[in-house]
What does this fold into?
Amino acid sequence: MSRYIPNTQEDMEQMLSEIGLSSVDQLFTDIPEGMKLSRALDLPGSLSEMELSGLMRGLAKKNAHCGEYACFLGAGAYDHFVPAMVKQVLSKPEFYTSYTPYQPEISQGMLQAIFEYQTMICQLTGMDVSNASMYDGATAVTEAALIAVRSTGKSRLLVSQGLHPEYREVLKTYGKYNDLVIEEIPLRDGITAVSELDVMSGVKGSDGANAANTTLGDENAGKATTGKSDIAAVIVQSPNFLGAVEDLKWFGEFAASKGALSIACVDPISIALLEPPGACGIDIAAGEGQGLGNALNYGGPYLGFLAAKKAFVRKMPGRIVGQTTDNEDKRGFVLTLQAREQHIRREKAVSNICSNQALNALAAAVYMSVMGKEGIKEAANLCLQKAHYAAEKLFATGKFAKLSEAAFIKEFAVRALHEPIQAINERLLRHGIIGGLDLEKYYPKMKDCWLLAVTEKRTKQEIDDMVRIAAGGES
Amino acid sequence: MADKINERQVNSIDNGRAELEDRRQIEQNNREQAMLIFEMSRDGRRAYSLPACDVPVKEGLIPDAFARRRDADLPQVSEVDVARHYTRLAGRNHGVDSSFYPLGSCTMKYNPKINEEIASLDGFTGVHPYQNEESAQGSLQVLYEMDRMLSEITGMKRVTLQPAAGAHGELTGLMIIGAYHRSRGDAARTKIVVPDSAHGTNPASAAFAGFEVVEVKSNPSGGVDIEDLKLAVGQDTAGLMLTNPNTLGLFDENIEEIARIVHDAGGLLYYDGANANAIMGICRPGDMGFDVVHLNLHKTFSTPHGGGGPGSGPVGVKEELVPFLPVPVVECENDRYWLDYDRPQTIGRVRSFYGNFGVVLKAYAYIRTMGPDGLKNVSELAVLNANYMMKRLEDSFDIPYKRICMHEFILSNKKQEHNGVRTLDIAKRLLDFGYHPPTVYFPLIVHEAMMIEPTETESKETLDSFVDALISIAREAENEPDRVRKAPYTTVVSRLDEVKAARNPVLKWGD
Amino acid sequence: MKTYQGIKYTREHEWARVEDGLVYVGISDFAQNALGDIVFVELPNPGKSLKAGEQASVVESVKAASDIYSPVSGTIVKVNEALEDTPELLNAEPYENWIVALEPENLSEMDALMDEQQYGDFCAKEA
It folds into this structure.
């Protein structure tokens, strides 16, 4: 029997006889005979620990990875420094082998860690309340949009094209099934074209599906806002997908003037240097928390953070941890405001989510505890300095042109004048460097445009090498 | 046998009491209120170190209008503070590695250590999702082979690994069902039928995918009420969501007829794989007539629950639904793996990138470890363990559905109720014996339900000790009901005031 | 238990009474008892029009959420804002504390509701 199944043949016989059966097959008589599988599953045979380890190491070797390559790829997933403490804490079985903390008396550790995580996310974003985390940045932004739809009773969303293209795709997928009308605000010179917004924010009463859902007369349907338009929310990312810093304060004021909510998708590292959404009048902040102590992991598991003004707390999806006291008046923590959730409200729940990315949120909390008030600023500043150094060096080669005058923190886009991006990236890879993103895939008009991320992990040497090889020189 | 149990009971009570005294001593230290990390913060303390900036430093790179004016007030603590803080918190948490965790419908099986080690290899953790396909062939191969293996286990054509959790998988599967009907010009199919015994996520996911929910009743033996189902389905039926074995731990023996009724009405069948641990290698949702299935890698395939996540909720579909899967789909040609985005009928994306790869990886390692025979043994032992426990508890507790169960079973407090002992009290008393309690108050159709799922990774000795503890609690409920009602006594906090937490929410430090 | 002239009950355990032409709506003692400690009352915006049987509010306890349906058709003219901070008033004095007040479209809809005697019998059967 497998090493993960402790009962022996003798145990099984004893147990069967206690039940009054003579074979294991008799346990499955409820399953109609014709439905049973009459053969073994067609799967590879079982492996010992050593064989498995060898197989998996072999697969891992087929990947290029950031431990050996200098990574200049970002676009929503970043090669930030992860302190050793994170792995140590995450390896504690009391955390990683536990379930959702439904029994608070024996789950105080995770509950308190998540309460601290919620606090740190609020400190970082300047918002009033945070939930215990969502699946990823894309679903966090989507759920933020749905909070706005529920709160305003409207269904039209104005979304900047500076929002991560995959987040927009997820929003559209969810939108199709929730009768949302999603319109994109174009980019101009690398940032959201705010001049388009005044035109777009007009009422689209005659616009097919839209008109059926929302009209100006619906003003009272919502609680949180008094409607002056049919817009539920304006969604903007800062720094946006191209790395440029957007004017969140302007978006906050604009949305408010239209009776819509403002949603900002922000980067948790850059925000250490940028005025946070809470100080810009933004209603809901969301984003990808991977950069906070989580490895790249080929795209997951990550965590989405979601924080909002207090008024929206009972409209928030997902787990939320609250502080309370026990019988002896001792401080303790519980999952709270559960009446929002699926196990109580069933089809009327604010979301169907019934988990959080607890262990990833724990990683984020440990990361923020280690970095602290000063460390996170210092890391962000290293990104800022190195990214600007890399940009200058690239322009100095004469092979790359600027795309935007907008301010940036750790990521920026350039246009290659000498070669297709694919050729540059392939050459870099041969030299142990993972190059930037070819933007044409996501923005068809951005031919030969390249998105580069420079984190605190990149050294001057790596940047110099990247610039030289990208410009055409070999090492 | 009765004598044996009595002897065990007496021993367990004595052992239990002695153990309680010991535990009280040990946990005295733990009882001190754990400090919040913010309460340890001192200006000037630090736990981080970063290299000096090796490029020329420039000022004024961020325009004043955008620069942060007030720092994020994150804690300032030393590295040893952080280490001790989280070690203290870990000591206040209970996992599968701490002890038996028979949480019904959650499949809290042992989480193999080699899988953790594999998932932490640099060659997997350090791969960026946008690296070109050539430089990520190892990861793509894992995703592709996982699709093939899960397809075989469930009897489906293809499996997407993008959904990040079971509920996310449900949503994805239901969107696929919606897209399928619409592609056939059958937009009038707006209703999803869900049994009243279903998990709350089923109706929530259906509503979230834009469907109306129609509930069908359960029959006296716990299965779907066939007559009620016939009334519920019609030309507006998009599909039926079913967990089989259901949430009562029973296999619905009418599954063939259920499938026929739904398919005849033009609906599709959705399989909630919450309970797949009972059927691996024994029967397959695809062969039962299901068109869409989601699995929970964090239940059936041994990946740790992580205190609430990350999980992974792959979705498998039959051939006619393959075009609607989320993009991208991993394909393989001549041993080269690639991501296919060119799928015009796709529902779109449900998450960024390709799902919780790190979780998929652990489940992949698990399936390769178990092999086909091992997986079948898993289900056999999961079911045997549950039936054995149920048998041993039948004299002390009410068992609402007394028949051979699958991998889990339900008790109620009917025999304890007259002493004012509720299911919650029994659960809390179990904490004093060092166990995580079973799932309580679910499914909703059983009054004061307690749902026990032992899993296959527990030995007979463990099952016996737990049963002994429950039996001694049943006896205590007779003789000293107050003692049960006020439990627990040995945990770091006693029962917490949830009403206070919900009325005046304190959701962050300083609120 | 305090009674009002013309107090009526629904099968969903709401009560309704008429005062100065308005219909005041709350939850019955049976309902508050079944819900347990009430932690939050979601109040609608005044001005909202409802048909009889449509959702007017939601009352939440720790482990349950209960929709409150309007017993009659009409327009909500006021909500009991005291419940925002002290939802427990519904536990303490369910008949003293109304949730919403409606301007009814047709007062005769009240006739279809149960009187105290009928409601008592109804609850006895439910329990």
